[in-house]
Amino acid sequence: MKRPNSIAIFLIALTALFSAGFACNQTESSSTTPNSTPAPALTPAPAAPKNISGNYDVTGTNADGAGNYKGTLEIIERGDVFQFKWDAGKKYDGVGVMTDSTVAVSFTEGENGTGCGVVLYKVGADGSLDGKAGYWGKNDDESEKATRTSGTGIDGEYSITGKTPAGKDYKGTLSVKPVGSGYSFAWNTGTTLEGFGIKQGDKVAVGFGGKQCGFVAYDIASDGNLNGKWGGYGSTSVGTETAKKK
Fold first, then answer.
1. What is the pLDDT of residue 228?
2. Least buried of 3, 15, 101, 192, by fewest C-beta within 10 Å?
3. DSSP-derived 3-state class of residue 127
4. CA separation for the pair 83, 85 (Å, rounded)
5. What is residue 144's predicted lDDT score, i.e. its pLDDT?
6. Which residues of the chain have pLDDT under 50?
7. Is residue 207 domain-resident?
8. For the segment 190-230, what is each residue's pLDDT rounded down to a tens digit?
9. Which CATH number does the domain housing residue 95 bear?
10. From the centroid of its chain, how far is CA 171?
11. How many CB atoms lie within 10 A of CB 7?
12. Is residue 182 part of a domain?
């Protein structure tokens, strides 16, 4: 019988050992999750305060470039609406409603805002307007849905249905037309009503009750401050106002 070569046996054993080790490493590598750096978590933006009641210092610019002003503002929660009281050289009083992080206010000069009202619409993807309205001296709000029947953007004709602060249903029509820096609104529900307002993002703030009633549209910042644009019926430009909570 021929004796096996010892060097050949050694080489065969070494090859087998190397192959086994390589296979083991391949199995281990395939079962190990690659080391990767996880994506940083997104920090959500702080939500706007739900209650804007309180006292503020205000600074602003007048519409049509008529200079700057400063003063104070008190906001008082009144049921579903808010009362706004300014002292900025003259006294003004108004009523406001809030949707999401937007507040719309109608105001007039003097210490009561009798006769003024405001509606804040949210513009839907289909062009409809979903509104919340408030009247000075009434603590309940009004709801209104306006479905566009003609026009583009918010300019056009609408059919409307709604419920008054007293809970009474109503229906009628609404006509919206561009005027100056904003839009005129004309409602007909058996009686007629006119207003004027501006569009910011997906919101439209409208003051109504007569040409003596101006309007403000505020964005509520996460720190509780209010950043607004304001004007009156047919304004060719709008003023600005910042209200910083005390």
1. 95
2. 3
3. coil
4. 7
5. 98
6. 1-36, 39-45
7. yes
8. 999 999 999 989 999 999 998 889 999 999 999 999 999 99
9. 2.40.128.120
10. 27
11. 8
12. no
